[in-house]
Amino acid sequence: MRSRSSQGQHHIWSRVEGDLPGQMPLRDRATPKLVTQTINILKREIPNFHMDGSSWTNNLSWVQGYENVLTPMTQLSAQFQISGFLKKPEI
């Protein structure tokens, strides 16, 4: 049985991936904007849709109670983006 989070991920990727012949590769379609739009649509269509559960259990959250971990990670990620480090694919 899949957890709610993995079901949520499945819903997102099945919508983003699609299966149209000649469609551009997933890496070119799965933009942050498209994924965000897809999540917003799913939240309207599926009242209990969420992405904050962990992948192996339904009763724990990866979000609530982890702000002291997630906030520094988000800040570090933003610093990488600003520095241009992630724009150098040869690294």
Report on this model:
The chain has 91 residues and is mainly alpha-helical. The chain is built from 4 helices and no strands. Helix 1 crosses helix 3 (32-45). The radius of gyration is 16 Å and the shape is flat. The termini are far apart. 2% of the residues are buried.
Q: Indicate the overall shape.
A: flat
Q: Number of folding domains? A: 2
Number of distinct beta strands: 0
* Count of DSSP-assigned helices: 4
Q: How is the main sheet built?
A: none
> Approximately how much beta-strand content do the residues carry?
under 5%
Helix content: 40-55%
- Write the element-wise H/E pattern from the N-terminal end onward: HHHH
The chain-level structural class is: mainly alpha
Query: N- to C-terminal separation?
Result: 39 Å
Can you tag this structure with a few keywords?
2 domains, 54% helix, 91 residues, flat, mainly alpha
